[in-house]
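USER:
Try writing one entry.

ASSISTANT:
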Amino acid sequence: MPSRSYRRSSSSSDGEGCVVGIGVVAVLSIAVAIAAFGSDEEEVPEVVADCVIATEQADGTYQVVDDRFCDGSSHAAYYHWLYGSSTTDRAGYVRGGTRTLPANTNVTSRNGTVIRGGFGSSSKGGVGG
């Protein structure tokens, strides 16, 4: 009986293909991780502010006034910014929110006044209190 000898092909695709495939997966994984973490810095939460008369109404709402009353001048005892409030069925009134300026957010009034541009940047128009 003739002896058979089998020889393995010296093709380099067996081992190198696997290494290349793993390398590509690793690079793609790192790219996805960088994109995911990098996007956090770009996506700053948006908060709406309303300049309101400081006195809360009996129904728990606040009357909205022009932004100029919350400019940080001597009107502070009568008016303040209310952050994150929601509109009501009653035109010119809002409910809820907080008087505390939210950290790490972009804050803009419903009238377009920029209160703060996120991550501790300076404020325009004053901070209510």
Remarks:
- Helices lie at 13-42.
